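new request in #modeling-help
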Amino acid sequence: GEDVEQSLFLSVREGDSSVINCTYTDSSSTYLYWYKQEPGAGLQLLTYIFSNMDMKQDQRLTVLLNKKDKHLSLRIADTQTGDSAIYFCAERRNSGNTPLVFGKGTRLSVIA
Amino acid sequence: ETGVTQTPRHLVMGMTNKKSLKCEQHLGHNAMYWYKQSAKKPLELMFVYSLEERVENNSVPSRFSPECPNSSHLFLHLHTLQPEDSALYLCASSQTSGGLSYNEQFFGPGTRLTVL
């Protein structure tokens, strides 16, 4: 398909791990990104992964990339209430002249 | 000021008004973008300015008019908008080496626009 796909909602308990999944479209995409948007704010770049990597870890965040299935995931360990936000997956396609292509975002709700 | 700033943060306007959104980036980048974020829709790219030249216009209605006087400033001029134009308008910047190379974008906080 043409769209970057994400589940719209995810709800987890405080202290549990959150896993947000994304399916992207272009197997030649070079970079894949995760952005976070808190209520009333703009997008904040959380992390990114280069397409020749399978995994990237940054403190509580782990990004997994499955190029064969064009599947990207973001795992947040020990989820806190401050992690409640919308998380956007984005891909930088290697074809055409378009900038990042975004999914619709996954709204993460953390229950205390 | 650091990063990408946008003013105003909130704007309410009537359909006959003319207003402008302003974006400023303090990152030394050479590309700037306007995005529209509506409820339940993916982020929509509206305009791209790379090296101060507009390189893309995704068939945005002419009631939206961008202006990029220099690499640090970007405006979106609005006139005779419709209620369906109500959305969060996000500005972003990046450093591009030109052509097809777009690097990660840094976003401003957005302007929440309501058209009555």
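bot summary: Chain B has a mean pLDDT of 86.
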